[in-house]
Amino acid sequence: MKRYWVVGGEYADTSFSRLAPGKTEERLGPFDSYNDAHKAWSGRAWSTVDSAQTRYVLVTEDVGTEAETLYWVVGGEYADTTFTKPAAGKRLERIGPFRTQAEAQKVWQGKAWSTVDDALSQYRIEIETHVEDD
Predict the structure, then answer these.
(1) 1-64 and 67-134 agree in CATH topology
(2) Phi, psi (5° rounding) for residue 45?
(3) Of 17, 67, 78, 130, which one's alpha carbon is 20 to 30 angstroms from that of 99?
(4) Mean pLDDT, the chain, as a whole number?
């Protein structure tokens, strides 16, 4: 069974590696469906859209199994600033998986900086739990 969480908060800087002084990580959930979690994530993301140092991600949890966390960099050019569907004729990139958040963040940072002047491009880190077969 999968459960979904929205995790994030205000960070010390845009490397998103440590929380801002006096701030704690927020965890919303668990949600039983990805769609419900995505709605909660979207609400938190839009309510903090003007804060470059605030970020939320979706985390997938496999309940009752031994799981490995994997990180993906996802994004590209979107049709508009709702960042919900790719631009016409474009597909979103899905880069990874990475075994650590630090590895994914290096790639994310490169992608984000390479498109910093394009208001319709956005990249994010998605976290998923992968169950390994024994």
Answers:
(1) yes
(2) -65, -45
(3) 78
(4) 86
**CATH code, residues 1-64:** 3.30.70.2400
Quote the DSSP letter at residue 99: S
Question: With pLDDT > 70 as the criterion, what percentage of the chain qualifies?
Answer: 93
Nearest to 77 by CA among 92, 64, 99: 92
Q: Which long-range contacts (CB under 8 A, 24 or more apart) does 114-117 make?
A: 115/77
CA angle 102, 110, 126 (to 5 degrees): 50
Q: Give domain 67-134's CATH superfamily.
A: Uncharacterised protein PF13773, DUF4170 (3.30.70.2400)
Whole-angstrom Cα distance, residue 30 to residue 64?
14
**Average pLDDT over every residue of 51-62:** 86
Query: pLDDT (tens digit, 9 = 90+) per residue, 16-30?
Result: 888 899 988 888 988
Q: Which residues contact 105 (CB under 8 A, 6 or more apart)?
A: 15, 16, 17, 125
User: pTM higher than 0.85, yes or no?
Assistant: no
* Token code pair at residue 84: 């919900």
